[in-house]
Design a protein that fits this description.
The complex is a heterodimer of chains A (487) and B (628). Chain A is mainly alpha-helical and 487 residues long. Chain A is built from 19 helices and 2 strands. In chain A, a hairpin with a 4-residue loop joins strand 1 and strand 2. Chain A has a domain of 166 residues. Chain A is globular, with a radius of gyration of 21 Å. Among the domains of chain B are: 208 residues, no CATH class; 72 residues. A two-stranded antiparallel ribbon of chain B has the order 1-2. The radius of gyration of chain B is 29 Å and the shape is globular. The chains are: A mainly alpha (487), B mainly alpha (628). At the A-B interface, strand 1, helix 5, helix 6, helix 11 and helix 13 of A face strand 1, helix 5, helix 6, helix 24 and helix 25 of B.
Chain lengths: 487, 628
């Protein structure tokens, strides 16, 4: 029941938003997201405690939906789903608090769409039925499409179109593959996780290897993995910052989550066959995106490429098939979401104060707005995985995972991926230097962080440090999932 | 309750200082900030002393687990501290010298508006360094390892309005990061082959003979050493250290003496059990150290910036320490770390006193005759020079001689080159001393009028350090003078040197004689040549030395610029024209198709999507409530 509530709160609040006017929308959005925060925190706590005491540490809910199609309304939460719901629960109110004083045109539909998207994202993390999963996947994406095209920057139409082409192609191929798999096991619940993974896993290896790509393309685009990534910098750049946060902190995790929850058990032999290919693509992506990040002048594009590099590392570890890598991946999914949210919050403050995101025109923030500069520095060092920030824990485990993989090239993989550590320091410190240091550029609004911005930022910073020093809760929450995936 | 159980207090005090000053940096008055910063480090020093005496009397080595850090599957890496003779020795150096530098800073930085922030960073620096030496496994060491990188970044770029300074800060961090990648790979290799990062387990496995492939020892040792190259400024990763003087001068003293650069020495001494099994790696370490010592010394001879001379002398002295490590004489390297910490902190703080008096001027061509106005600074600086040059009786003599003796025993080529390095050291230090403190003043009249001795908060640390620079060497007397080597005995519980044969006494006397002769003669030459300075533009080899062998330019040409060009090319051709070109091509194709079909439909993608989302939502909502 708690899982259903977790879905229904944003869904109902989202629909209600369209009928509200004025301030009420924001208050509704804040309350509903805070409610999901509390609820997801509670769910995570339950699962954590159950896991520690050794009892069944998953929550399940199931009821018939459209038996004619072979689909049921079934939800399932283990440590990984709970953690990602919690991430969603944290990020959504942070977005709303940070943007509290900002005027948005047509707030009712803006917040309505955001909440609908949240419902979709939560659904993706919880669905235990492939068709339900697909429905939530689309529910998460489509509001974002509207948000970009209505509230985005100058080039929003062209960029949204590109985003749409990419994701839609991926979605359709995934749907086709899911339908194909469901036909192998006809019945009232042929789309259930158990049936569909069973159907996939029993396929001949050759079949698995093409089914793999049909499904993986959708996820690879979402992650994104080189060379399916070019929608991302454009979309991040053109979207309004709250939407960018949803895209980068949460939706990217949908792709990673889907790989783990669906792709791996569904076509294990396909995965085994292609894993080196995917790891190589991922690692090319790390280095390639890092190089591109070095030459960016727009803050948003720089962070977009940085995120591609980080996701490349996560994806490489996912496919290296080690328990340590898997465990690190779980933790890193959460931490990346927290860090990049912090990054976008600062970018949005910078844009608000200076009227530009062009780093060649920025400078001197450490003098003019020291709080913002300190926040920028902390998040930047988390971004390059400095020890005692949350970024380090995951990255260390990910590298360890890649290194321990059975692949003959593990050392090469590790060494090349490791270049990302150095290049990451290069572009991140460049960014800090150009934005915070040097002579002061005049601000449009001469103001350091406002109360609501400080509140949102403080939450992020506390999480960055706390989980960097004491990652145990996160590790324990996801330990059993990692163990289950790679025994 | 023993003192050792209170070890967590040692890093805790500076951490508290950092938090107080860091959070209240805009409201706390300057002098209060300085007081908080200094007292917290003093407190750590006191606790360290207590633990030192306990370790000294019991000889015990203990591991104190604070909490679980990374736990995954069978792997458990705790946040744990190691208390033994090696870590305690470093604790005393870090907190002791760190405290003096804090005291000095209360006066030196008093005019700076960012003083409280400065003390916050300084405390964080001490905290990181303490974690580095206290860690009971490589991961905790790595936390401190990267932590000092962060702090050096913050402090080198402390005056952040100056682009050159922030560039130097960035360079320091990135160069260190290159080394850190080596360290990280080394750690992963240890984890992969031994399943642990804890010193106790790892060294235990090594000693019990549980082997991986023997060549693996060399690989692990070399990977870790790459980390040390970055942190301890060895070729090819040394160029950040001379640039690091962009920060306030006491920071240079901290980086060069008490923290940061000693990390690499500590790491190898700590890993002595590993390096003893890795002879090839040791040879590599020794040669890198030797070459670094020589190259840096040649550069130091031709620098005109008082801090640059000292910076290159640090690089060179670190080279000497790595030579010792490469001989398997780990305790000798630690001995030199200690004496070097005394006299290098003294010299840097002395140079700070000079720069303070000169109103920010750092060029020794514009100094001269400062001794008349600054007696304390002059005398203490002279003591520092005597110590680093290796004049008998001063601390540097004993430690440097021990290094040379070790190289003489194992590798005559390195011994010869080492002597050459020692020769240059004596020469450039007395060049520096003579040009700065003797002769006539060469600066402007205003500067001359302004010259004054520094206040007590600055001269007091100088005096203490001068005393240590004189007497600090007596804990490690050569065998011909004393039967017991106090420091080596103390360290023997935690560091295992490669066994060496006792040298014949007359050989040892001979070596002592050679070192002494070289130090004295070249000190005198250093003074004599520069008594009446005549500055002409350098040519030939001198010009190469003055321009630091053009290494920065070389790195710029073969690494920095090609990387930027590559990035630019990838952005333009692969990303925008290549991948995006294909995607947009597909997009256009779809649009073109859409245009044909539009005759039948409204043709707006948005409309379809809108219908779809509404449809899905309704389907979902209806069936959910209906079926229930």
């Amino acid at each position: 029941m708690m899982l259903t509530l977790l879905l229904l709160i944003p869904l109902i609040a989202g629909i209600l938003s369209f009928f509200l006017k004025g301030e009420g929308v924001k208050i509704l959005a804040l309350l509903s997201t805070l409610a999901t925060l509390v609820l997801s925190g509670f769910v995570s706590y339950e699962i954590l405690v159950a896991g520690l005491s050794g009892t069944n540490n998953t929550l399940d809910f199931s009821m018939p939906w459209i038996p004619q199609l072979g689909t049921e309304f079934s939800l399932h939460a283990d440590g990984m789903s709970a953690m990602l719901c919690l991430l969603t629960g944290i990020v959504m109110p942070v977005i709303i608090i940070a943007n509290w004083n900002k005027e948005v045109e047509r707030p009712w539909s803006f917040y309505g769409l955001m909440l609908l998207s949240q419902a979709g994202i939560t659904g993706v993390f919880l669905a235990y039925d492939a068709l339900l999963f697909y429905a939530f996947w689309e529910l998460a994406l489509i509001p974002v499409y509207f948000l970009c095209s209505q509230w985005g920057g100058e080039k929003r139409i062209a960029v949204t179109f590109k985003f749409f082409v990419y994701t839609f192609v991926g979605s359709l191929m995934m749907l086709a593959a899911l339908i194909y798999l469901s036909t192998l096991n006809p019945g009232a619940n042929s789309y259930s996780w158990a049936n569909i993974t069973h159907a996939g896993a029993s396929l001949a290896p050759e079949t698995q290897s093409w089914v793999f790509w049909m499904i993986f393309i959708a996820f690879a685009i979402k992650l994104p993995i080189f060379p399916f990534h070019t929608w991302q910098p454009d979309t991040y750049e053109q979207s309004p910052t709250p939407v960018t946060i949803i895209l980068s902190a949460l939706m990217v995790k949908m792709g990673m989550f889907a790989v783990l929850r669906w792709l791996f058990p569904m076509v294990p032999q396909g995965v085994a066959f292609w894993s080196n290919t995917v790891i190589i693509l991922s690692i090319i992506g790390i280095v390639y995106a890092s190089f591109l990040a070095i030459v960016q002048t727009d803050l948003k594009r720089l962070i977009a490429y940085s995120s591609i590099a980080h996701m490349g590392l996560m994806c490489a570890a996912a496919f290296s098939n080690t328990q340590m890598g898997m465990h690190g991946l779980m933790v890193q999914m959460f931490n990346h979401g927290i860090n990049i949210t912090g990054m976008w919050l600062i970018v949005s403050m910078v844009e608000n104060r200076y009227g530009t995101r062009d780093m060649t025109k920025l400078g001197g923030m450490a003098t003019a707005a020291p709080q913002m500069a300190i926040a920028l520095a902390i998040i930047s060092f988390a971004n390059i995985a400095l020890p005692l920030t949350n970024g380090f824990i995951g990255e260390f485990m990910l590298f360890n995972g890649i290194f321990q993989s059975a692949s003959a090239y593990n050392i090469v993989f590790m060494a090349v991926a490791g270049l990302g550590i150095i290049l990451g320091a290069v572009y991140t410190l460049n960014m800090v230097q150009k934005t915070a240091f040097g002579n002061t550029t005049p601000m449009l609004i001469s103001k350091d962080m406002t109360t609501n911005e400080s509140l949102a930022m403080a939450l992020i910073v506390v999480l960055v440090i706390f989980l960097g020093v004491y990652p145990k809760p996160l590790l324990e929450l996801t330990q059993s999932v990692a163990q289950m995936m790679v025994p | 309750m023993t003192m050792t159980n209170l070890v967590y207090l040692i890093p805790l005090f500076p951490l508290i200082g950092f938090l107080i000053n860091g959070i209240g940096w805009r409201t706390i008055p300057k002098s209060v900030g300085g007081l908080i910063g200094s007292i917290t480090v003093l407190a750590s020093f006191v606790v360290s002393l207590g633990i030192f005496f306990e370790v000294k009397s019991t000889g015990a080595s203990s591991t104190i687990v604070l909490f679980d850090f990374i736990q995954s599957g069978k792997l458990n890496i705790p946040f744990a501290f190691q208390v033994d003779s090696l870590s305690v020795t470093f604790l005393l150096i870090i907190t002791g010298i760190g405290f003096l530098i804090h005291v000095y800073s209360t006066s030196y930085m008093h005019e700076d508006e960012g003083m409280v922030k400065y003390f916050a960073y300084l405390n964080l620096f001490i905290f990181s360094m303490l974690l580095l030496v206290l860690g009971a496994n490589y991961l905790v060491m790595f936390i401190g390892w990267e932590g000092v990188g962060l702090c050096s970044y913050l402090l080198i770029g402390f005056w952040f309005k100056n682009r050159d300074y922030t560039n130097a800060a960035k360079k320091a961090f990135i160069m260190n990061r290159i080394g850190d990648l080596g360290f990280l790979i080394g750690m992963l290799l240890i984890l992969f082959h031994f399943g642990t990062l804890s010193y106790q387990d790892f060294f235990g496995q090594l000693k019990s003979g549980a082997t991986a492939n023997p060549s693996m020892y060399n690989w692990i040792a070399i990977c870790l050493f790459i980390g040390a190259m970055g942190k301890s400024a060895q070729i090819p990763l040394y160029t950040w250290l001379p640039d690091a003087m962009a920060g306030p001068t006491p920071v240079s003293a901290l980086i060069h003496a008490a923290t940061m650069v000693t990390a690499g020495i500590y790491m190898i001494a700590r890993s002595s059990a590993l390096y003893n099994l890795a002879p090839d790696a040791l040879t590599f370490v020794a040669w890198i150290g030797c070459i670094t010592a020589l190259i840096a010394a040649t550069i130091a001879i031709k620098q005109y910036d008082i801090k640059k001379v000292l910076a290159y002398s640090t690089v060179s002295q670190l080279g000497f320490m790595f030579m010792a490590l490469g001989m398997g004489a780990y305790t000798t390297a630690v001995f030199h770390v200690m004496t070097h910490a005394f006299f290098k902190a003294l010299l840097f703080l002395g140079s700070g006193s000079v720069i303070h008096a000169m109103g920010g001027e750092q060029d020794i061509r514009k100094m001269g005759g400062l001794g008349k106005k600054m007696k304390v600074t002059q005398i203490t600086f002279l003591i520092g020079c005597l110590a680093i040059a290796g004049i008998p009786g001063f601390s540097g003599f004993f430690s440097k001689d021990e290094i040379l003796a070790a190289t003489f025993e194992h590798n005559k080529a390195i011994y010869a080159l080492g002597l050459f390095g020692a020769m240059m050291t004596a020469f450039y230090m007395f060049r520096l001393y003579t040009l700065t403190f003797t002769g006539t003043f060469r600066g402007t009249h205003d500067q001359e009028h302004h010259l004054h001795e520094s206040p007590a908060a600055m001269t007091f640390p100088l005096i203490i350090l001068a005393i240590l620079s004189v007497f600090g060497g007596y804990i490690g007397l050569p065998a011909v003078i004393s039967e017991t080597h106090t420091l080596r005995n103390f360290l023997s519980t935690s560091v295992s040197n490669i066994a060496h044969e006792e040298m014949a006494h007359n050989t040892e006397w001979m070596l002592l004689g050679i070192s002494t002769a070289i130090a004295v003669v070249f000190s005198i030459i250093g003074v004599a040549v520069h008594r009446k300075p005549n500055f002409v533009a350098n040519t030939g080899l001198s010009k190469v030395f003055e321009n630091k062998w053009y290494v920065d330019e070389l790195y710029d040409t073969i690494i920095v610029r090609p990387l930027n060009a590559l990035s630019d090319m990838l952005d333009r051709f692969v990303e925008k024209m290549g991948i995006d070109g294909i995607v947009n091509g597909i997009g256009k194709l779809v649009r073109f198709g859409g245009d044909r079909v539009r005759l039948l439909q409204t043709g707006q993608v948005g409309f379809y999507i809108f219908v779809m989302v509404i449809g899905i939502t309704i389907l979902f909502a209806l069936s959910f409530f209906w079926i229930r």
